[in-house]
Amino acid sequence: MLNPVRQEMIHLLRLVARPLSANRVAELMQLSPSAAHSHLNKLVKMGLVSAQEGTRPDGIKTTYYQMRDVKLRLCLGRKDAFQGEREALAANLVDSTFRTMLENVYRYDEQELPDYGILRFGALHLDTAQRKELMELVERYLEEHGAPRPEAEEHWEYVVLAYRAGEEL
User: Fold this and answer.
1) Are the C-beta atoms of 64 and 52 separated by less than 8 Å?
2) Contact, 71 vs 14, CB < 8 A?
3) Is residue 1 a contact partner of residue 89, using CB atoms and an 8 Å limit?
4) DSSP conformational letter for 42
5) 63 - beta bridge partners?
6) Which domains does the chain have, with CATH numbers?
7) C-alpha closest to that of 14 among 50, 54, 95, 68
């Protein structure tokens, strides 16, 4: 799964929220159709992407691929032979989202930025009940709005990163 091409395919399929042919994926990612098809089939075997037969507007039968509604769990705290790979994948996902956000926000002036991207950082000072409430609120909102909806007016990509700061503070 750590293959960077497949990571980008997952990213693309999540954002478009509709089925794409291997040729369209190849075109959007600047790959050969056979390479796109091969990577998509591996994602299908992994259970991350679904494949459905369909007919193009010109009448030719083709396979369409769509991201399945699955949660990727990296298990970052697990210490095993794949710990480094999981950490690299997590870092790549965060960095990729940040870089894409930067590309997008440079297209707009400062007054428009809240409509196209947000980056906040800081510290929260919570008791256990407040922390649980926050986690449940975020999880519930993401669950309710995370299902692919091609008709949605806006498609947003996000990274939510929060951790409990060291006990020594």
Assistant:
1) yes
2) no
3) yes
4) H
5) 53
6) 4-67 (1.10.10.10)
7) 68
* pTM, entire model: 0.71
Tokens of 64: 């369409």
Which strands make up the sheet holding 20-21, listed edge to edge? 20-21, 61-67, 49-55
Give 17's contacts (C-beta < 8 A, 6+ positions apart). Answer: 67, 148, 149, 150, 152, 155
Tokens 């690299």, residue?
88
Q: Where are the alpha helices (DSSP H) in the chain?
A: 4-16, 22-29, 33-45, 83-105, 128-145
Give pairs for 97-101: CB < 8 Å, separation 24+: 97/157, 97/158, 97/159, 98/159, 100/157, 101/157
State the amino acid at position 130 in one-letter form: Q
Q: What is the pLDDT of residues 27-80, one digit of tens each?
A: 999 999 999 999 999 999 988 899 999 988 888 899 999 998 877 777 777 888
